[in-house]
Specification:
Layout (H helix, E strand, L loop, with lengths): L2 H9 L4 E6 L2 E5 L5 H11 L4 E11 L2 E10 L4 E10 L4 E3 L8 H12 L2 E3 L30 H4 L17
Parallel strand pairs: 2-5, 6-7
Antiparallel strand pairs: 1-2, 3-4, 4-5
Length: about 170
């Protein structure tokens, strides 16, 4: 296990880890501990930088957030995996700890509908105002194809049905 992984788990024993390879670790973090874990990363890895935060829709109101931090001096990658659930999932914002997270959190909020509580600027970042609350990266989002013909873009091909009769 990496040094940062040990530091986090020693301070927060309920965190679990998965080795991802040399100097790469994934920490499974309960949502209520995200700020504490990110603070430890900021303190323990002096040049840690947030590389990305992205969401995953697992369907049935189950989501995951993946945070990726990188340290050039130690060549360490730390991936945090947080599970969230509900129609309106939420987690505390961490952009006051790492200001570079501000835009990542805004993007995840508008694409997945995951609210980052206490975020200083929750305005839309990428989508037009009329899509506020539509969450286009959720699997149940349906695309309005009414203007597809005038766009000149070929219509999407139907997805093949899975074999075995179990359709999801």
């Amino acid at each position: 296990m990496s040094t940062i992984g040990r530091a986090v788990i020693n301070k927060i024993p309920e965190i679990t880890s998965n080795a991802l390879g040399d100097n790469k670790i994934e920490l499974i973090v309960p949502a209520e501990k995200i700020r504490e874990v990110i603070t430890i990363i900021e303190e323990e890895l002096e040049d840690a930088m947030p590389e990305s935060v992205f969401g995953i829709d697992l369907e049935n109101d189950q989501y995951q957030l993946i945070y990726i931090f990188w340290s050039w001096s130690t060549k360490t990658l730390v991936q945090l995996r947080v599970s969230l659930e509900g129609e309106k999932p939420e987690i505390e914002s961490s952009c006051d700890i790492f200001p570079g997270l501000e835009w990542h959190e805004r993007e995840v909020r508008e694409m997945f509908g995951i609210d980052f509580k206490n975020h200083p600027d929750p305005r839309l970042l990428l989508l037009p105002d009329e899509l506020d609350g539509a969450y286009p990266m959720r699997k149940r989002f349906t695309t309005d194809q009414s203007r597809l013909e005038e766009s000149g873009i070929a219509p999407p091909r139907p997805r093949p049905k899975p074999e075995g009769g179990d359709s999801k």
